[in-house]
Amino acid sequence: MLRAWSADAVRSAEAALMATLDDEGELMARAAWGLARVCRARLEETGGSRVVVLAGPGNNGADALYAAVHLADEGAECVALQGPWPLAIGDSSSWQEAGVRIVAADGDWRAVLTGADLVLDGVLGIGGRPGLPDEAVAWVDALPPDAYVVAVDLPSGQDPAGEVAHEDAVFADETVTFGVPKPVHVLPATESAVGRLTVVDIGIELEGDPEVERLDFADVPGLWPVPTASDDKYSRGVLGVVAGGESYTGAPVLCCTAAVGAGLGMLRYVGTPAPTALVRASVPEAVIGDGRVQAWVVGPGLDTTSRAAGSKAQLDIARAALASDLPALVDAGGLDLVTGRRDAPTLLTPHAGELARLLNRLGGADSADVTRQQVQASPLAHARRAARLTGATVLLKGATTLVVPPEGTVRSQNDAPPWLATAGAGDVLAGVCGALLAAGLSPLDAGSLGALVHGVAADRANPGGPVRALALAHAIPGTVAHLLTR
Ligand SMILES: NC(=O)C1=CN([C@@H]2O[C@H](COP(=O)(O)OP(=O)(O)OC[C@H]3O[C@@H](n4cnc5c(N)ncnc54)[C@H](O)[C@@H]3O)[C@@H](O)[C@H]2O)[C@@H](O)CC1
Ligand SMILES: Nc1ncnc2c1ncn2[C@@H]1O[C@H](COP(=O)(O)OP(=O)(O)O)[C@@H](O)[C@H]1O
Ligand SMILES: [K+]
């Protein structure tokens, strides 16, 4: 499991360690040495030798400059761009003596930058506010496209807390962070700017709950509900799926195919005539109609406004499922039936547009209208608000999937290729996570583990190429086996 801690927690851990060290510069020395080792390796891989440092005003800039001193000692040509600010440590003459030429804001920095093989972004670190000083915006605009950009600790300008996306910021090829990952490295608003993430050990130890967790492959065997000889179909979990209608007939097929493929004890399907016929034909394992279950999936392809035959009876069962004390996953059309808090374990699985709509409906007349764009610009805050309003865990879908409980550490999964952005993929996710809820997992575990398996299945269904939702659903059983037996 990857764990990311807030800037404040990291600073406290650094202060605690520093108090035990004789030299107050020791941690920065460790950070700079580790950073220099990574840069050295990348220069060797790419055959480059010209390093340009973007030197900010704080310790992040100092880290980059110290790393450049090591690289200069080893023969690289190192130049640092300084803005109209003093450097945190030393001045231009002391750095020049140490082997790093400093080019001031009024110097010919463009020519220097054009020749860079490797750019070390040390403008801002965990002390940064989202956005960049104007001079650094100009540097970033002028970055040569073929230079390898290494961000020091985090891509400058990105929000260290990973809460908000900002357009004036660095997008790195690699980020070298110190001690532990931070939220910026794993949350959806900022993760795409991080590139490859490398963590340099500087000896700090973090205690207590992290801000963000990310499950990895090694977590799957410990969490996945593997049956034993004493199990039967009921003890493994029965899932009820209320999905589809006369206009959306495919969603229940995808959801039910994925749910049985994830290893359910049994599945009950509740639908109107057309999708029921399709589920009968394509998922012969499904038992049709209402009955006793351990958890519900309510909503894939569900049209809550339909007047077609069978719709009223189906909606009555959907409402009864939501009013029950059983765990429930609520997706797509089912989200329109959420009226407030539910006491039983609940996982809501909106995409950004559905989350905006849910917040507008539940937020009350006084709250400002939320748009899909606002959700995408600050996904964590919006998911958290929905989790607090409903008491449910909110799984917000996207390239990075967030799973946000009403309180405490959030999970963030990034396991899927962009090919997964295809209609019906969400119905498959609902089936997988629903199966895990029926087996007794918490909404947090069911959502994050389901998102991991779903993302890996997208890749395994057709490595490196397009994937359709039905192929994704069919790839679930093999993916689970692969992750359990690797
Ligand atoms: N605390 C420690 O012991 C260690 C810290 N390290 C480094 O220190 C960094 C943190 O250093 P600092 O606390 O000096 O903070 P930063 O280097 O992130 O920069 C903070 C400075 O930039 C200014 N600033 C912030 N946001 C701005 C914006 N958007 N536009 C313009 N100016 C802005 C602030 O006013 C402040 O002067 C870490 O990211 C890491 O690189 C490492 O050396 C490891 C050890
Ligand atoms: N760019 C992307 N990269 C990887 N996965 C993505 C990307 N965009 C969306 N996804 C995933 O694809 C799925 C889409 O679900 P959803 O929007 O509900 O589609 P549908 O309602 O058509 O089934 C979600 O699991 C989401 O996390
Ligand atoms: K940086």
Provide a quick synopsis of the model:
This is ADP-dependent (S)-NAD(P)H-hydrate dehydratase. This protein is α/β, with parallel strands linked by helices and 486 residues long.
Return the CATH topology of the largest domain.
UDP-N-acetylmuramoyl-L-alanine:D-glutamate ligase
> How many discrete domains?
2
The strand count comes to 18
- Average predicted confidence as pLDDT: 97
Small molecules bound in the structure, each named once: ligand NAX, adenosine-5'-diphosphate, potassium ion
CATH superfamily of the largest domain: Ribokinase
Indicate the structural class.
Answer: alpha/beta
Q: Number of DSSP helices?
A: 17
- Overall outline: elongated
Binding site for AMP: 397-401, 426
Subunit structure: Homotetramer.
Binding site for (6S)-NADPHX: 251, 301, 351, 427
EC number: 4.2.1.136
What does this molecule look like?
It comes from Pedococcus aerophilus. The chain has helices spanning 7-18, 26-46, 59-73, 92-97, 109-114, 134-141, 220-223, 233-236, 250-261, 273-282, 311-323, 352-362, 372-377, 379-390, 425-438, 443-461, 469-485, and strands spanning 2-4, 50-55, 77-82, 101-103, 118-122, 148-152, 174-178, 196-200, 212-214, 238-242, 266-270, 287-288, 295-298, 328-330, 346-348, 393-396, 401-404, 410-413. The protein is α/β, with parallel strands linked by helices and 486 residues long. It folds into 2 domains: 2-214, 3-Layer(aba) Sandwich (Rossmann fold), CATH 3.40.50.10260; 217-485, Ribokinase (UDP-N-acetylmuramoyl-L-alanine:D-glutamate ligase). The model has no long low-confidence stretch (mean pLDDT 97). Ligand NAX is lined by residues 11, 14, 27-28, 31, 56-60, 63, 88, 124-129, 131-133, 152-153, 178, 202.
